[in-house]
Amino acid sequence: MKATIKNLSNETVGEIELSEAVFGLPVRTDILARMVNWQLAKRRSGNHKTKTISEIRGTTKKPYGQKGTGRARQGSIRNAQFRGGATIFGPVVRSHEHDLTKKVRKLALKTALSSKAAEGKLVVLDAAAAASHKTKDLAALLSALGLTSALFIDGSNLDENFAKASRNIPLIDVLPEQGANVYDILRRDTLVLTRNAVEQLEARLK
User: What Pfam families does the record tag this protein with (predicted)?
Assistant: First the structure.
């Protein structure tokens, strides 16, 4: 599969051969859904917590006698039916992580890359490097390229000016190759890979 290489000035500067094993797989939404669920579950803090009866502050004394009052029997004012009492079956601090095999995670990343290629929303850049760290200058270049929602993936080392200039542009994300992930690829409309990123991703995923 061939793709044209562009520069930030929207000029064609060459062609690159994309590996079918990485960018030409059939799109499987079930694999993508499993991977996104795994990523979002892994990032949850899981620190929500309600108090059980043993954690509620209050006396342990029986509020009134068992018999003779005409009211329902009660053993503690810390029970759930009282104001300020315990919560029954409430959330507790826990991890929401679940397992997903390495083989499935690797397939999901290749499938996400293939889905962008199949939709025609994959752009290959010669390099993601900016002459200035000014957001205004980079925003003008991206506007000329027609990019309003995009994820840029560069090689191992990001260009400092490009990374700084892109920070304040809405819906534009920049990641190094080792940070490429399914969720970020799918949440942006266009995937922009540099020539270095393509080479490194193919070496990693083949």
Answer: Ribosomal_L4
User: Is there a single domain that holds both residue 76 and residue 134?
Assistant: no
Which regions in the chain score pLDDT beneath 70?
none
pLDDT digits (tens, 9 = 90+) for 109-154: 999 999 999 999 999 999 888 888 999 999 999 998 899 999 999 9
Q: How many CB atoms lie within 10 A of CB 66?
A: 9
Residue 62: domain span: 50-90
Contact 111, 32 (CB under 8 A): yes
Residue 146 sits at the vertex; the CA angle it makes with 145 and 150, to the nearest 5 degrees, is: 95
Q: Kindly list the distances between the CA atom of residue 137 and the CA atoms of 67, 120, 144, 169, in Å, as whole numbers in the listed order.
A: 81, 26, 11, 11
84: left (phi > 0), else alpha (psi -120 to 50), else beta?
Answer: left
List the structure tokens of 85. Answer: 């009492």
pTM, to two decimals: 0.84
Residues 41 and 54 in one domain: no
Q: What is the pLDDT of residue 131?
A: 87
Q: Are residues 86 and 173 in the same domain?
A: no
* Helix locations, the chain, DSSP H: 20-23, 29-43, 102-118, 135-145, 160-166, 182-187, 195-205
